[in-house]
Write a structure and sequence with these properties.
Elements: E1 3-4, H1 7-16, E2 29-35, H2 36-40, H3 43-55, E3 58-64, H4 66-74, E4 80-83, H5 86-94, E5 102-113, H6 121-131, E6 135-137, H7 143-158, E7 163-166, E8 169-172, E9 177-179, H8 184-194, E10 197-201, H9 202-208, E11 215-217, E12 225-232, H10 238-249, H11 251-258, E13 260-261, E14 264-265
Parallel strand pairs: 1-3, 2-3, 2-4, 6-9, 6-10
Antiparallel strand pairs: 4-12, 5-10, 5-11, 5-12, 7-8, 13-14
């Protein structure tokens, strides 16, 4: 089964911008940078195991926020990426770091909350800010954090909510807003512990809900559409990367479409 790169090794990657030298079996290895949400949903391990079984190519993956994953790709530390921040992905390709972008799945961002929220997305975020109800943000330049900032920007356009832009990104000001710079799992756990609200992807929400007291709120709003894309990295292991993409667009599509968590679909194709 695919090997997860340990946290110490991941930290070394992000700090040094280099991986250990490939061994003699490098042609049969494939290094993937992906989002914590893809891992935390449980789907990634299933896809990797199925791919390895079908193609005999070992997969090593590192799961970080999308911003960090894109940095790994830009440094040439991975062969391909699965990320979910379309604007940043297009910029990555325009800068010559990626070959192309192929959508492989989608779901939506949702709110997890201990209190009842309005039915509309922007109304819910406006309510959070006006009531100063504690909110936990990943604050890590991940795809989820980027989406959260985009929602706050829209809220500011239609309400009296004022935003600040600092090292934690774009957000309302106040000690009710926690920016923790961590992954989705840690963010949800903190929100549950402190009875705060947080934004997450549907897949991770479904995985965590049996273990937390927060209620999931979904919204009929294109703003929370969450596409996952595959990006081969320029100069990476092109053969293995092509095999993995072919798998994702064929056998992998069925695996993604039929993957459920507690009986509910986590992703769509």
């Amino acid at each position: 089964m695919g090997r997860r790169l340990g946290p110490c090794f991941v930290a070394l990657l992000l700090l040094s911008g280099c991986l250990t030298a490939p061994d003699a079996s490098a042609d049969a290895e494939f290094r993937l940078g992906t989002t914590t949400s893809m891992r935390d949903s449980g789907l990634l391990d299933i896809l990797v195991e199925e791919f390895e079984s079908l193609h005999g190519i070992d997969v090593e993956y590192v799961a970080v926020g999308t911003g960090a994953a894109l940095n790994l790709g830009a440094n040439g530390d991975v062969d391909a990426l699965i990320v979910h921040a379309p604007d940043q992905e297009e910029a990555f390709i325009a800068q010559g770091h990626g070959v192309n972008r192929t959508q492989i799945a989608w779901n939506a961002f949702v709110l997890l909350s201990p209190v009842k929220l309005p039915d509309a997305l922007l109304d819910a975020f406006t309510f959070i800010a006006e009531e100063e109800h504690c909110f936990v943000s990943r604050g890590d330049n991940s795809g989820t954090h980027m989406k959260e900032q985009a929602v706050w920007e829209q809220v500011a356009n239609i309400s009296s909510v004022e935003l600040v832009h600092d090292i934690n990104g774009l957000h309302p000001e106040g000690d009710w807003y926690y920016s923790i710079g961590q992954g989705m799992g840690a963010t949800i756990n903190m929100a549950d512990e402190k009875q705060c609200i947080t934004l997450t992807d549907r897949g991770t929400a479904l995985q965590f809900q049996p273990k937390i007291d927060l209620v999931r709120y979904e919204f009929n709003d294109t703003l929370v559409h969450n596409p996952y894309a595959y990006l081969p990295v320029t100069g990476g292991n092109e053969e293995a990367s092509t095999h993995f993409l072919h798998y994702l667009l064929n056998e992998g599509q069925q695996t993604i479409a039929t993957y459920t968590i507690n009986g509910e679909p986590a992703f769509y194709v």
